[in-house]
Design brief:
The complex is a heterodimer of chains A (597) and B (612).
Chain A lengths: L1 H9 L4 H33 L7 H9 L2 H7 L2 H46 L2 H6 L2 H43 L1 H8 L2 H38 L1 H6 L3 H53 L5 H42 L18 E8 L9 E8 L4 E5 L6 H8 L7 E6 L2 E2 L5 H7 E4 L10 H6 L7 H10 L3 H6 L17 H13 L5 E5 L7 H14 L4 E5 L3 H4 L4 E6 L2 E6 L1 H6 L3 H18 L1
Parallel strand pairs in A: 3-8, 3-9, 6-7, 7-8
Antiparallel strand pairs in A: 1-2, 1-4, 4-5, 9-10
Chain B lengths: L1 H7 L8 H12 L2 H34 L7 H47 L2 H6 L2 H43 L1 H9 L1 H38 L1 H7 L2 H53 L5 H42 L9 H7 L17 E9 L5 E10 L4 E5 L6 H8 L7 E6 L2 E2 L5 H5 L2 E4 L10 H6 L7 H10 L3 H6 L17 H15 L3 E5 L7 H14 L4 E5 L11 E6 L2 E6 L1 H7 L2 H9 L1 H11 L1
Parallel strand pairs in B: 3-8, 3-9, 6-7, 7-8
Antiparallel strand pairs in B: 1-2, 1-4, 4-5, 9-10
Helix pairs in contact in B: 2-11, 3-4, 3-6, 3-11, 4-6, 6-7, 6-11, 7-10, 7-11, 8-10, 8-11, 10-11, 16-18, 21-22
Chain lengths: 597, 612
């Protein structure tokens, strides 16, 4: 039911056309069935001069000038045949065209919906998301639905219509032979249905094996350095060979089973035709049916059998589509972030953390415990602490990528949770630890967050981030493409471009989540001093491991296991027993150790 | 690079026979299987041609002719034999084609993978990963499909056409000519259409791959998108893509929708002619009903093989690009290869003779080494360096100074343009790449883990390591503690590329991996950048004890991690500008001094003032 709702929803705007497809298919079926009847008419009534029994055909032949006229001008029959074929052609064309339009509009809408929804899913979703799986859903699952609409619906209608109409005509001609003609249909249908139902897991296994093989290749290529440096080529080849072989074997087995299916069902279908031929011979000889009838029976038998076999397959494929739809629905049903509701106060940069507690939805341990401190507008706050102490989580709270569970955070006395996310994120710029650059030019990447920015602003941002000189050295400068088709940037270069991209927005609050880790110390220092120059009045948070980066901060917050253990300045903390002092000592010991040698 | 290849796809309008010869050579390995396949295919075609003839017999002999019923059992038996044969034929040809398809793909993929393991770094630097992936997965798959199924269709199609023509001419040559009359026109139209249809579907595939790329970027970049509030901009761009996709797809669908009706209408002219002419013949008593029926059936049956062959020709033309790219991968020459003598002695990377590997001491000499990635930008010029076994060498310098190049040369990821590198006094090139790499430990700035458990990843350093050795290695680099805290300890799945772990954790594991390898030469490339100071400190001690008997090269931007090196080399524009211990270099008050003091600027000023 949910599946039908899904299809109905995305068919919006094309529902009438879908109806049109069904109509055209019905017309197509009628025309297809008329051809053999015409032949039969010509054979029996025109050539063999049997009397016409069907009142409709009497009317038709009278309209054409009577049987004898037709007999004298067989060209009339020939022209009729061509006419019918032209009509069939037109219906086929319309069917193909509308099928294409309906399915493609449908696919476009689904793709857009998926993309938009994914973008709006909360941060926590993306942290856990498996990229490959999501991409597969958005591409191949959408395609499964598209294919169903593109061909299978009309095939289904075609099969059902042609089987019912053809059978009723056959029964009206001569019921005993008609019974013989349909005896195997349920068997063929059930066999196809059950077979493909059972095959689904085999199809899936083959797909999975292919996926595993690609994944293995991908990892090997991405890790070439490691493979080569550890001399593991042989091992890798064996590993790949295994995956490659598994894929081959599973798929071959699948094909073999398919071969069995086609071979066996062909056998049954052809036997069915033989039965009609043999019994037909007897009935024709005894005069129960005419030669023309015999022709109609054999022609119709072929028209019914193959579509019926297909119906079994399509119905079992519908199972696949319903799985695909539920996989898509799984994403679409995940609640998105509320970007709209909330207040939009002026954000300045006075921030108060008051007994803040936070834990992840799926975790049982508090990541942040009773965190309290306050920040004045324009201050620089350094946050230090061991890996996993909650530094990044604390910063994520500030942009509402996550919401705190207890306590309060206020921005100029506005409770953070009440501020609209869109507004908040426009005002709080954060540079992530592992920033992502889009496959566009460097210029476009920097300007992305602020499409109105002019070229000088982009260059200035790059200069502040100390990346301008690097960019200028690329052959295409700012027009250099990032990613696979362009340059491969080093970690430090990426971080600096990400910084440029963030600061172009002139946010009153800036967060650097260890985003200078891959930059050398000299550049680190020059970025910080450039920032100090241009961002007076901007509240800045710095997560860092480097004392040198932290020591100029107005306030240093030391986090351990989610708790604030020390707050102070470099001056005070250096003298206070604790983690900060230990870090300073370690770094000092290095200096002295070096000096002594 | 990838764009360059995309362009090629459309320049191939002629069949390149030389190219296909090479591809068929790859296929020739399966010649016996192919022979079996084609046998079954010809059988299928024969039966296909036979059925309408049997139906004609049914009418002419048994119905209209009121022939002798005693012949009917024989007729039924012949009919049944054909049916049985067809069932068996169909099973075997599908099985056989599947076998060839899968075997061919398997072989060529393994070849390609092997080649990829042998190729040097310069190849990977120039070739995007996605390009290689597409070659090995979809291009090879497409070739395998064409060489098995499509080629088979060709055999079937021609057999059916020959068979029908033969039977028709032997039954009634006038009617045969009527059937064949429209075929040249049909053939021409089919070829014309099939080419365009395939081309338009190719366009669709191109947009489709862009959409896949956009999804991939939208998902991996989602976190960044959020922080920068880019949702609407991205959505707008994505909309443009899907809109394009829809337009292209509909164009392709309409093109194929128009093809069939045109062809069918043309075909019906042939049927109509048969009916007209043949009908009159029947009226004159010159022709039997069954024969008339036979020809109408054949007229319909003749078209399908024709369409298949037309499609096939177009397919081969389109697949040429795939073939070209697969061959270009298979024939790529690794730039770094061992000489035949070295291979004779040590074996290849994939087939090593480990018993011939000499024990390494770890003396490294760079002897007047020059190197560049492209001739206009020399990276190293006449670089010489002598490192005694067991020394720890720290390489310091700005990005692009040549530090990484030195390490790349040492690992023989690249080879010097001139000069040589000696290990234990012997030119590196006189021993195998495998020998060098089996003595090397390497930790990278952005550590690469393979999907699988933590244990498997550490074990990568030494495939036959025992559980104790693995744990010990982890302890040595202080990874044990956090690994134990993971949900399933050492069995925890690290995810794709180690994605479920933090960068710091990944680094620790890659470190343990290198430690387990127990190499004589250690290379640490920015190994500690994302580990917090305390952890780094702990590792630092581990490294120090670990490096005692090993030659090691450390590249780090953070000077604190290298102060204890035996020698610090300051590299500037591909030359060593300063060389000495931390103390010596500090006294020199040169480049290193400035670099170093910059980092601890305020602190150090303080200190120096006090000393003075």
């Amino acid at each position: 039911m949910k599946q039908a709702k899904f299809v109905w929803r995305f068919l919006h705007g094309n529902r009438l056309k879908t109806l049109g497809i069904i109509l055209v298919v019905l017309l197509y079926v009628s025309m297809t069935l008329i051809s053999p009847l015409l032949f039969s008419f010509l054979i029996d009534n025109v050539i063999n001069l049997n009397p016409i029994t069907n009142p409709f055909m009497i009317a038709v032949s009278e309209a054409l000038g009577g049987v004898l006229t037709i007999r004298g001008n067989l060209g009339i029959g020939a022209v009729l045949l061509v006419l019918i074929q032209l009509l069939i052609g037109m219906f086929i064309y319309l069917r193909g065209r509308w099928n294409g339009q309906v399915s493609e509009f449908f696919a476009e809408k689904v793709r857009n919906a998926m993309y938009e929804h994914l973008q709006r899913l909360p941060y926590s979703y993306h942290v856990k998301a498996k990229t490959g799986d999501l991409i597969q859903r958005c591409t191949s699952d959408v395609d499964t639905c598209r294919r169903f609409l593109a061909g299978q619906i009309s095939e289904l209608v075609y099969a059902v219509a042609i089987a019912t109409i053809a059978m009723s005509i056959l029964f009206s001609i001569y019921a005993p032979l008609a019974w013989i003609a349909v005896v195997s249909l349920p068997i063929i249908f059930l066999f196809a249905y059950i077979f493909f139902k059972k095959m689904q897991s085999a199809f899936q296994k083959s797909d999975e094996a292919e996926g595993a093989m690609s994944a293995d290749l991908q990892e090997n290529l991405a890790g070439t350095r490691v493979v080569k440096a550890f001399n593991r080529e042989e091992y890798e080849l064996k590993k790949f060979d295994k995956k490659n072989g598994e894929f081959r074997d599973l798929t071959f087995r699948l094909i073999q089973l398919l071969g069995f299916y086609w071979g066996f069902s062909d056998f049954v279908c052809l036997l069915q035709i033989l039965a009609v031929v043999i019994f037909g011979i007897f009935f024709a000889r005894s005069g129960e049916i005419t030669v023309g009838n015999f022709f109609v029976f054999i022609s119709y038998e072929g028209m019914i059998l193959w579509p019926i076999r297909n119906v079994g397959r399509i119905l079992s494929d519908m199972g696949k589509m319903s799985v695909s739809i539920s996989r898509l629905n799984e994403i679409l049903d995940t609640p998105i972030e509320d970007m709209v509701n909330g207040t939009t106060p002026d954000v300045k940069g006075d921030i108060v953390f008051d007994h803040v507690y936070f834990k992840y939805d799926d975790g049982d341990k508090d990541v942040l415990k009773d965190v309290s401190f306050s920040v004045k507008q324009g201050q620089t706050i350094a946050i230090l602490g061991p890996t996993g102490s909650g530094k990044s989580s604390l910063m994520h709270l500030l942009t509402r990528l996550y919401d705190y569970n207890a306590g309060s955070i206020t921005l100029n006395n506005h409770e953070l949770k009440e501020i609209q996310r869109h507004h908040l994120r426009k005002n709080v710029g954060i540079v992530l630890q592992e920033p992502f650059l889009f496959s566009k030019t460097i210029f476009e990447n920097i300007r992305m967050a602020n499409p109105k920015a002019k070229e000088p602003e982009v260059l200035r941002a790059a200069q502040i981030a100390s990346v301008h000189d690097v960019i200028k050295e690329f052959e295409l400068g700012y027009k250099t493409l990032v990613g696979e088709k362009g340059v491969t940037l080093s970690g430090g270069q990426k971080q600096r471009i990400a910084i440029a991209r963030t600061i172009i927005n002139n946010c009153p609050i800036l967060i650097f989540d260890d985003s200078l880790s891959a930059v050398d110390t000299q550049t680190d220092a020059s970025i910080r001093s450039a920032l100090r120059e241009v961002s007076r009045g901007v509240t800045t948070f710095l997560i860092t491991h480097r004392i040198a980066s932290a020591q100029n901060a107005d306030k240093i917050v030391v986090l351990q296991d989610g708790e604030v253990t020390q707050i102070g300045t470099h001056e005070t903390l250096s003298k206070e027993e604790g983690l900060y002092q230990r870090i300073v000592e370690i770094q000092n010991a290095m200096i002295e150790g070096g000096d002594d040698e | 690079m990838s764009e360059h290849f995309e362009e090629q796809e459309f320049n191939t309008d002629k069949l390149d026979t030389g190219l296909w010869k090479k591809i068929f050579k790859l296929l020739w390995v399966h010649k016996k299987k192919l022979a079996v396949l084609y046998f079954f295919m010809i059988m299928v075609a024969t039966v296909d041609v036979a059925f309408p003839y049997l139906n004609k017999m049914a009418i002419d002999t048994f119905i209209s002719g009121n022939g002798d019923l005693s012949q009917l059992p024989w007729f039924a038996l012949a009919y049944f034999a054909c049916i049985l044969a067809q069932g068996i034929n169909v099973y075997y040809f599908i099985k056989q084609a599947g076998l060839i398809e899968m075997d061919f793909a398997y072989d060529v993929r393994n070849r390609a993978f092997k080649k990829l393991q042998e190729l040097s770094f310069s190849y990977y630097d120039k070739t995007p990963l996605g390009w290689i992936m597409a070659r090995v997965t979809s291009d090879i798959g497409r070739l395998a499909e064409i060489l098995s199924w499509s080629l088979m269709d060709l055999v079937w199609g021609s057999s059916v056409m020959i068979g029908i023509t033969f039977v028709m001419f032997s039954v009634n040559w006038r009617l045969a000519l009527l059937v064949l009359m429209v075929m040249p026109v049909l053939a021409a139209i089919s070829v014309w259409f099939q080419k365009r249809i395939l081309k338009s579907y190719r366009e669709v595939r191109k947009v489709n791959s862009k959409i896949t790329g956009a999804f991939s970027e939208g998902i991996t970049g989602a976190k960044t998108t959020k922080t920068l509030v880019l949702e609407e901009i991205n959505y707008g761009e994505f909309n443009a893509l899907t809109h394009d996709m829809r337009a292209q797809s509909i164009r392709a669908a309409v093109l194929s929708a128009i093809f069939m009706p045109i062809v069918m209408s043309l075909g019906s002219i042939s049927s109509a002619a048969i009916l007209w002419y043949g009908g009159n013949q029947v009226l004159l008593g010159a022709l039997q009903f069954g024969t008339l029926m036979l020809f109408t059936q054949y007229a319909g049956q003749f078209f399908e093989p024709l369409r298949q062959i037309a499609r096939l020709l177009a397919e081969f033309q389109m697949a040429q690009a795939s073939a070209e790219r697969v061959l270009s991968l298979l024939s790529a020459e690794p730039q770094i290869v061992d000489t035949p003598e070295v291979i004779a002695k040590y074996g290849t990377v994939l087939n090593p003779k480990r018993e011939a590997y000499e024990k390494i001491k770890g003396n490294v000499t760079f002897d007047h080494v020059s190197f560049h990635y492209n001739p206009e930008e020399p990276v190293l010029r006449d670089f010489s360096l002598d490192v005694t076994s067991g020394q720890t060498i720290a390489l310091v310098g700005e990005t692009g100074s040549g530090k990484s190049t030195i390490v790349n040369l040492l690992c023989r990821f690249y080879e010097p343009v001139s000069g040589k590198i000696l290990i234990d006094g012997v030119d590196m090139r006189e021993r195998s790449i495998g020998w060098l790499h089996s003595n090397l430990g390497y930790v990278l700035q952005s550590p690469h883990l393979f999907s699988g458990s933590v244990r498997e990843n550490i074990r990568y350093g030494k495939l036959d390591a025992t559980e104790e050795e693995i744990v010990e290695a982890a302890k040595l680099v202080n990874a044990h503690e956090f690994i134990e805290k993971l949900e399933q300890g050492y069995d925890t799945d690290v995810g794709e590329g180690g994605g479920r772990l933090s960068t710091g954790q990944k680094q620790l594991i890659s470190f343990a991996r290198a430690v387990l390898a127990d190499p004589a030469i250690f290379v640490l490339d920015e190994a500690t950048s994302s580990i917090d100071t305390e952890t780094e400190q702990i590792i630092q001690h581990a490294i120090e004890t670990l490096l005692v008997h090993r030659t090691s090269f450390i590249i780090a931007h953070r000077l604190s991690t290298i102060v204890s090196a035996d020698r610090i080399l300051v590299i500037k524009k591909g030359r060593v500008v300063e060389d000495g211990t931390h103390g010596e270099l500090m006294k020199k008050k040169g480049y290193y001094f400035r670099l170093y003091t910059n980092q601890f600027n305020e602190e150090l000023q303080d200190k120096l003032l006090r000393i003075a």
